[in-house]
Each structure stands twice: as structure tokens, then as C-alpha cells.
Design goal:
This protein is mainly alpha-helical. It contains 6 helices and 3 strands. It has 2 domains: 56 residues, Rubrerythrin, domain 2; 133 residues.
Amino acid sequence: MKKRWRCTICGYIHEGDLPPESCPVCHAAAEKFELVEEAGAGLSVATVLKSELHHIYKVFAPHAVAAHFPTALVPTATLFLFFVLLFGYQPLEFSALALLAVTIAVIPITMITGFIVWCRDYQKSDSAVFKKKIALAWILLAVSAATLLLRFWHPDIMVAGGLPTAFYFFLHLLMLTCVTLLGHYGATLVYTARR
């Protein structure tokens, strides 16, 4: 029976006597692979489950998880508002507002976990990519908060039309730009580190 090796970075499973020189998925080096046992090799379901949960615990990345919330919610909220403008379907405006509220709640968690990763894994490097990510995170927080305040100050902003509606939509486009750039710079860090 061939041995199974799991990449501790991305979870890719390799079968063979030795781990591959590098992971074909994330390009992690051979030393990032761990030997795993077959589920059917006399192991109980509880043992396999415990092993999988331990693996998840070892590689869990809170910053990556938290960062995906704004990255998904802001484009969805912006799309909902676009549909409100296009079709006049007002219930989507409340949905966009709810997504914005969740985004604002998650941004501080993303910033804190990002700070921890920056200190732990990058020794507080003051490279341009980190400066851009930090600045964009603060801009995203400020614009999100301003957008939410504007919506509560002017509850019928999407019905009013004209300049207020255009400005409110512009703020959503600005948030969309921020999360797009944050995702780009985050991916730049991840893929550069794996090469």
C-alpha cells in the first residue's frame, strides 16, 4: 500500500513512498508534508475525525477567514444597490444595508488578525504592500462607517434620486475598490511567500 502525504499548507494529498518535492497546488516545500494513515487501516471514525479536526486546528487562519467576509459582502451589497437603481426593487436596499452592517462588524476583526499575522509572520515588515494594505483597511473602515451613517441620516437615500443617491452608490463603489485591492495585495503576499 502506498503512503499518503498531506500538505500542511493547503491539504493536498499525495500518494507515494516520499512526499513530492513541492506541492502542485500551493508550491509548499517537501518538508511541509506530513504522513497520514489510511482511514480504512484499522482506524475508527472517531480517530479519523479527531485527526482531521487537529489538522484544521493546526492550519486554521483566522485572518484569511475574516478577510473573506468583506471581500464577499461588499460586492454583493453593491450589486444589490445596482439592482435597486436599475429595477427599483427596494427590498434589496435593506439587504445591502444589512450586508454593510455585517461588513463593518467584521472589519475590526480582520484588522486585528491581520496585525497579528503581520507581527508574527512578517516581523512588522514596512514594505510597500503592507503599507498599502494597512491604509486600505483604514479607508475601508472609514468609508463603510460614513456610508452607514449616511444611510441612517437619510433613510430614503435610494428613493430620493439625484446627487444623494449617486453619492451613496459612489461610496459603495469606493468600498468595492478597497476590498478588491486588499484581496489583490493579500494574494500577492500569499503567492509570493509560496514560491
